[in-house]
Amino acid sequence: MVISIFVFFSVTLSHRRDVGGQEFGGMYCAILIVNSFVVSAAILQVFGQDIAELPLVATSNGNHGKGYFQTLFSCIERLLAFLKVKCLVLPAAEEAESIWTEKFGFERIKPDQLSSYRRSCCQMVTFKGTSMLQKTVPSCRVVGAPL
């Protein structure tokens, strides 16, 4: 079995970053490939060192429950830690909220904190019927660095 993980450093439909009033800078696509097939993917937007957002994730049919997204998510967390991003947020569908909170360590964002995020990151994605969740990004461990 061959497993590869790629992060594409620009997700835009054109070379312009500002399209129709929407700013697409700092948007990335991470994919996990197993035996030449994409099995899991995520869209990630980094708003700077304070916050990043994971608005969309997907795992292909037939590959649920195999830990592929957990592997991809772990790599995303390490990338964010390396970039010194402090917090990761995401919109969670009601039926998926318990997975995010119990399996991945997210918690609901308090209304005042969500208002603050929206003021500083007005391009955050929200979907009707979702709850906004957050998680502190674990610190990056550097090999050979003193603990």
Report on this model:
The chain has one domain (3-136): Aminopeptidase. The chain starts with a strand and ends in an 11-residue tail after the last strand. A 7-stranded mixed sheet has the order 1-4-5-6-7-9-8, covered by helices on one side. The chain contains 3 helices and 9 strands; from the N terminus they run ββββββαβαβαβ. The longest helix has 15 residues, at 68-82. By secondary structure, the chain is an alpha+beta fold.
Secondary structure layout:
Blueprint: E1 3-8, E2 18-19, E3 22-23, E4 27-34, E5 37-46, E6 51-59, H1 68-82, E7 87-93, H2 97-104, E8 107-108, H3 111-120, E9 130-136
Parallel strand pairs: 6-7
Antiparallel strand pairs: 1-4, 2-3, 4-5, 5-6, 7-9, 8-9
Number of domains: 1
The CATH architecture category equals 3-Layer(aba) Sandwich
CATH superfamily: Gcn5-related N-acetyltransferase (GNAT)
Q: Indicate the low-confidence ranges by residue numbers.
A: 10-20
What pattern of helices and strands is seen along the backbone? Answer: EEEEEEHEHEHE
Helix content: 10-25%
CATH fold-level label: Aminopeptidase
Structural class: alpha+beta
Count of alpha and pi helical runs: 3
CA-based gyration radius: 16 Å
> What characterizes the major β-sheet?
7 strands, mixed
Give the rounded overall mean pLDDT.
82
Beta-strand fraction estimate = 35-45%
Number-wise, the strands total 9
Q: Which descriptor suits the 3D outline?
A: globular
Query: Biggest sheet: strands side by side, in what order?
Result: 1-4-5-6-7-9-8
Cα end-to-end separation: 35 Å
CATH class annotation: Alpha Beta
